[in-house]
UniProtKB/TrEMBL annotation:
Name this protein carries in UniProt: Exocyst complex component 8
GO BP terms, alphabetized: exocytosis; Golgi to plasma membrane transport; protein transport
Family, as annotated: Belongs to the EXO84 family.
Region annotation (Disordered) ranges: 252-290, 648-669
Biological role stated in the UniProt entry: Component of the exocyst complex involved in the docking of exocytic vesicles with fusion sites on the plasma membrane.
One GO CC annotation: perinuclear region of cytoplasm
Compartments it resides in: Cell projection, Growth cone; Cytoplasm, Perinuclear region
Biased composition (Basic and acidic residues): 252-263
Natural source organism: Etheostoma spectabile (orangethroat darter)
Signal peptide range in chain numbering: none
Length: 669
């Protein structure tokens, strides 16, 4: 068959194989239907082998298919992030290039302003005043002295999430702020716009948005944690907005720097010695203004550098800058200029914290496991937000575990599902514990929060476990195996010093009690039903092999016990074994009482039969069954219970003593 099959396979696999010619030749060469049937059987066998091999290959490579699909998905996400970063880098490089090219323009502009300073300033202020008269709620904007208009124009705002048009706006760029006004649908006189928002130039960063037709000519304003996207009329106007916004922000920084440098450090009145010791603040000693040098270039550019780091998601760089500043100011006196700098930096710290909090929010992608949160967690800890980092990390992992449990498909046998459920849950819990220990190694105060979280996660697991095992009314043997699997997986956590066995048992005790009681009721009902039909006859096992398998004495294939007693013993021992698999201290009395109730049903039936039976032979047979119960079954139950639990069962011993008169009954003689 193998040689013939190989020849047939090679023939069918040949590239020049012609089915019609092959069938024609086969019909001519065959002697009758029998040859055709045999050939058909060979082809069918070959087809079955091919299908089986194909199925094996699919199963063999199935995991590789899944892993490849996941890797492709991860790669797609990383490529998207890389594209976004490259786009931001390109916009930054373009801004730097434009800044270099506009140096000559700045010098010419300064010369013109030096020649006609008053006219230019007054003209810009008059223009801004006339424009703000068209804005409802914008009268107080001109209260700030020196504020004038730099640029303005119409824009269309888009939704950040779904990139759909939201509203048409008019933007007013001033030398120190940006005003956003929305168009009024019903104009009243000269009023065309309504005040929407006013942003200080230092409070936001401008990012170019790559054109992706039909979404084009857009730029983004980042006010962490929020952002807004605007679309210009064409690419030329978009370019003007980006250039002028960048130039205006730089001019404001330069102007503020010059203003601070020209400030007089101390008042002339304070130069004179004072006899009052309370005239001088302890935190601001004489000469403090001169002792703190804030004119260093990296300090002047620190707020802008922090904005850039946050915009580029360079969280480590931002925290490094903050550490550098804190180290520089650690031993310095607290002067008004230091307080002002601290105030600006604190705003950026809040922005950075909000971004890191968003990175850890459950709304973000949960791929990558606990390690994916390490970056944001470590930076929050460096910022002194270890408690918040711990809370967000545990919330993120709780959602991840819950999602993994929900995505687990309920199919096949219950025990197979429980194996998968335990593997997913306890593996995730173990990975989370190891990552937590790594991230919060120096914050021992957070460990109590992890223990509380672990108990909460265990409660989530038990809900899914009980729903599948106990609510679906599985047999006691299946439930016992499932609980055993859960206990074994729970023991794995002890390798990291986390023992949740007691928590698991306390959460399962109610369902296990109900299962034991339910199975106890089933055994009692079945025993009572068999007792009602009891004829007190020897049980016939049909074959001597069956008798040997039962491991009890008898003749040929007959057992010296009744069917009721044999069936009771089997059910009793099965219940005991499954109960011991489910056993833990809280279930001690429940299991004991169940065993006692089941034994009493059988003992009372035997006692009643002895008192009612008149036939001497049957009476002797009943005594024989009673002796078996008293001398064989009950001692085995006691010893097995003591072996499984670790302590004797006094209730079962008392029950055996109380049933001793059943064996020696005067009426049986």
């Amino acid at each position: 068959m193998s040689e013939t099959g190989n020849r047939l396979r090679k023939l069918l696999e040949s590239p020049n194989f012609d089915p019609q010619n092959y069938v024609k030749q086969l019909s001519q060469q065959s002697d009758g239907d029998r040859d055709l049937q045999e050939h058909r059987q060979k082809i069918q066998t070959l087809a079955d082998e091919t299908a089986q091999n194909l199925k094996k290959n699919v199963y063999k490579n199935y995991r590789q298919f899944i892993e490849t699909a996941k890797e492709i998905s991860y790669l797609e996400s990383e490529m998207y992030q890389l594209s976004h970063i490259l786009t931001e880098q390109k916009s930054i490089m373009e801004s730097i290039t434009q800044a270099l090219l506009s140096t000559d323009k700045d010098e010419t502009s300064k010369e013109m302003q030096a020649a006609f300073p008053k006219e230019t300033e007054e003209l810009k202020q008059r223009t801004l005043t006339s424009l703000l008269e068209k804005v409802e709620g914008g009268k107080n904007i001109m209260d700030t002295p020196g504020r004038h208009l730099v640029y303005n124009g119409d824009l269309v705002e888009f939704d950040v999430d779904n990139m759909s048009p939201v509203q048409k706006v008019h933007a007013f760029l001033m030398n120190d702020c940006l005003l956003i006004a929305t168009w009024l649908p019903n104009r009243r006189g000269t009023v065309k716009y309504k005040y929407n928002a006013l942003y200080d130039l230092e409070s936001f960063a401008v990012v170019n948005v790559k054109d992706n037709p039909p979404m084009k000519d857009m730029f983004k304003i980042l006010m962490f944690p929020d952002s807004r996207i605007f679309q210009a009329e064409n690419s030329k106007i978009k370019k003007e907005w980006l250039e002028i916004l960048d130039e205006t922000k730089k001019n404001k920084v330069t102007k503020d720097r010059h203003t601070k440098e020209e400030e007089v450090p101390t008042s002339p009145v304070r130069v004179e010695a004072s006899t009052n010791p309370f005239d001088q603040d302890e935190d601001e000693p004489a000469g403090a203004e001169e002792s703190v040098d804030l004119s260093l270039e990296w300090i002047q550019e620190l707020p802008e550098d922090l904005d850039v780091c946050i915009a580029q998601r360079d969280f480590e760089g931002a925290v490094d800058l903050l550490d550098k500043l804190n180290g520089y100011l650690r031993d310095q006196p607290v002067t008004p200029r230091v307080k002002e700098l601290r105030l600006k930096v604190d705003g950026r710290v809040r922005q950075l914290t909000e971004v890191l909090v968003f990175e850890l929010s459950p709304d973000r992608s949960l791929r990558g496991g606990p390690k994916a949160t390490r970056r944001a967690v470590s930076q929050l800890i460096r910022l002194g937000q270890s408690t918040k980092a711990c809370e967000l990390f545990l919330k993120n992992r709780a959602v991840a575990v819950q999602t993994a449990i929900r995505q687990l498909r309920i199919e096949g046998a219950t025990l197979l599902y429980i194996h998968k459920l335990c593997n997913i849950f306890f593996t995730s819990l173990l990975e989370t514990a190891k990552e937590f220990e790594m991230d919060f190694a120096g914050n021992t105060g957070c460990y109590s929060a992890f223990v509380v979280w672990s108990k909460s996660a265990m409660r989530m697991f038990v809900n899914a476990f009980s729903k599948q095992v106990f609510d679906s009314k599985e047999s006691l043997s299946t439930a016992a195996e499932c609980v055993k699997v859960a206990k074994e997986h729970c023991q794995q956590l002890t390798e990291i010093g986390l023992d949740l066995t007691f928590t698991l048992q306390s959460l399962l005790v109610r369902d296990i009690k109900a299962a034991l009681q339910s199975y106890n009721d089933i055994i009692m009902e079945a025993t009572k039903h068999r007792n009602s039909e009891e004829m007190w006859r020897r049980m016939n096992l049909m074959t001597p092999e069956a008798l040997a398998k039962l491991k009890y004495t008898g003749d040929d294939c007959w057992v010296n016990l009744s069917y009721t007693i044999v069936a009771f013993t089997k059910q009793m021992m099965s219940f005991l074994e499954e109960g011991l698999k489910l056993y833990f201290p809280e279930l001690h009395m429940v299991l004991l009482e169940s065993l006692r109730e089941i034994i009493l049903v059988a003992v009372q039936h035997v006692d009643y039969s002895l008192r009612c039976e008149q036939d001497p032979e049957k009476k002797a047979f009943i005594v024989q069954n009673a002796t078996f119960l008293h001398d064989t079954v009950l001692p085995v139950v006691e010893s097995r219970f003591e072996e499984g639990v670790g302590k004797p069962a006094k209730q079962l011993q008392d029950l055996r003593k109380s049933t001793r008169p059943v064996r020696i009954n005067p009426e049986s003689t």
